[in-house]
Amino acid sequence: MDLAQVGATWLHLLATVALLGYYAILGLIVLPAIRGIVAPRELGESIAAIERRATPVIVGSLVIFLATGVYLMVTDTRYGGVGNVTGSTWATLFLVKHVVVVAMVGLGMYVDALVVRRFAVPGSPDQPAAVRRLAVSTVAMTVLGAAVLFLTAAGQLS
Fold this sequence. Notes:
- With 158 residues, this protein is mainly alpha-helical.
- The chain is 84% helix and 0% strand.
- Helix 1 (3-37) runs antiparallel to helix 4, helix 2 runs antiparallel to helix 3 (89-118) and helix 3 runs antiparallel to helix 4 (127-157).
């Protein structure tokens, strides 16, 4: 048993759970609940506070996810090097997975920018629309995260 591989896989999975779990919980549980409880004037402020609290977890997870992902990929015997994306089913699946991950990072940056910009001014008239876009974006992150997990599982079995 290679302890470096086990440790990297464990950290990679922890980072994945933290990142995807945050967006799933935010989009599927927190936002629907908070929209029905918190007054519209305080809604943006509440969501911004949640996001500020989550930012270190999100950034830390991304750093760990990236570092361990690169390590796990380059140490995998199926890895044929940069540009070898059609050499095997594994390579093709992991290319698609990485495209989805890049889309998730872009969507995550959009979500964070949306929260910072739209919720900076309490009671702003565009907050209800921003909350709806945030809810849709976080659910999209959850769906993309599920796709990444599926592609990972398929790649591991290929």
